[in-house]
Amino acid sequence: MEAATPTTVVLPTTGWNDACEQVAAQLRPGDELLVVCDDPCESVAERAEEYSGVRLIVAGEPKGCSGKANAIAAGMEAAETERIVWTDDDFYHPPDWLEGLRADYDRQGPTAEVPVFVGRDPLAAVLEPTHVISGTLAVFLANIPWAGALVFERGDLEDEAAFLADLRRTISDDGLLMEHVEFTTVARTRRVEIGGSIRETLENQARFVQIVRYHDPAGLAAQGAIGAALTAACVLFPLPAFLLTTALMAGVYAAFGIRRWTFLAAYPVALAALPLLCYGLARRSFVWGGRRYRWRSKFDVAVEADHE
Fold first, then answer.
1. What is the Cα–Cα distance from 132 to 184, expressed in whole angstroms?
2. At CA 207, angle to CA 83 and CA 127, rounded to 5?
3. What is the pLDDT of residues 131-182, one digit of tens each?
4. Cα of 1 vs its chain's centroid, Å
5. Is the pTM here over 0.85, yes or no?
6. How is residue 27 annotated by DSSP?
């Protein structure tokens, strides 16, 4: 039987948590888990000693990029294997998660799973249908990589040094990776809770829109056209639009195994599609992970502490 290719898992986080535990338990000999923090983290350093192949990587404060992009770049530079997995700490990693990504790469090369964003506050819950369309369905159909669960190899990058340099001057790690590596997206979903307050949900909305703005302008134009058509249809033909959008959303939910009542919010979300897009474009800054970012162009980012 052929030995498994050694794999490095890069996991940005703020401290040791369930995700670290789950991934560490799935490592094979030769694998490594790099838990990447902004600052030295005693909890990670202590727990890493209990597992073979687990290391703490200190990324430092981001300068001109997001904290996530900075952490991924630091993890990539510290990785000692050819095969790389990126993941996040905000969803459950089942015991076969890492093995599934290994098998995906051996079969079809660079591969990503898809998220299902579940709202933790009332506004985030109501907006779930828009995230299912843009963050689950569109990601799957367009083979867009999601940084929460993806695998690729260094050789898939034409110029790794240039990629890492660009990563340290932008916001979106997976948005940038999409431009460098061609992925296959599989219909395995991971439930990710987002929001928590109305303000946090609005900040997420601004960030999601601006990621599309800078990394997929054609997709943004399509979103605008579709949003305008949906808003007009919902205003002009309210009852048929309500029935159609609700039925279609129920079908999408079923296709991805999403069992949530929030498909019933499809009509109001469709009605608000264009205003939500305009809101995200109008914002001059947004808050993510305790930092305020001013994203002036794809590679022009100002980072500030969030004092609100």
1. 18
2. 105
3. 999 999 999 999 999 999 999 999 999 999 999 999 999 999 999 999 999 9
4. 35
5. yes
6. P
